[in-house]
Amino acid sequence: METSMAETNGSSAPTVSPKTVKLHAGKISRSKADLDGARMAHASLWGTAEKVGIHRAAFKAVLKLRDMEASTRDDYMRAFRQYAADLDVFAQGDMFGDNESAPVGKNVTKKADDENVVEFG
Predict the structure, then answer these.
(1) Where residue 92 falls among pLDDT bands split at 50, 70, 90?
(2) Which of 7, 36, 108, 115 is most buried, most CB within 10 Å of its CB?
(3) What's phi and psi for 100, nearest 5 deg?
(4) Which long-range contacts (C-beta less than 8 Å, at least 24 apart) are formed by 99-103?
(5) Whether the model pTM is above 0.85
(6) What per-residue confidence (pLDDT) applies to 110?
(7) Does any domain span residue 7?
């Protein structure tokens, strides 16, 4: 006779029949194998996508946005744009790429040469 999970053997652990333990062990093992296979297939798909030029982080972000409810996505995008503007994330950099580490943004100046000062922002 199968022992119910509610019955105990005097300890805090429930008493479970060996048959039940073996049944669940088999199911869990098969499920883990299926999960491992799915993970490998998922990783392979990402590898293929990256090989054709898809930027992994950007694509993941877009997929996340696509799957959001419209109102949640609108709130997120509104906040994103505000934070990006506040932090000058999309400030225009040096047009010729001479100094990629130069600060850019509002009221930042940079000497182009000894005679000229260029103001960004």
Answers:
(1) confident
(2) 108
(3) -65, -25
(4) none
(5) no
(6) 45
(7) no
Asked whether residue 102 is assigned to any structural domain, the reply reads: yes
- Per-residue pLDDT tens digits for 22-77: 999 999 999 999 999 999 999 999 999 999 999 999 999 999 999 999 999 999 99
What residues make up the domain containing 55?
A: 16-67
Token code pair at residue 78: 């509104």
Q: At what angle do helices 56-66 and 70-86 cross, to 10 degrees?
A: 140
- Specify the amino acid at residue 44: S
Shared domain check, 110 and 94: yes
Residue 25 and residue 50 in one domain: yes
Counted domains in the chain: 2
Within 8 A by CB and 6+ apart from 73, the residues are 65
For the chain, how big is the Rg over CA atoms in Å? 29
Closest by Cα among 19, 13, 17, 18 to 4:
17
Write the CB contacts of 92 (distance below 8 Å, at least 6 apart in sequence): 104, 120
Length of the chain: 121
Q: Is residue 3 part of a domain?
A: no
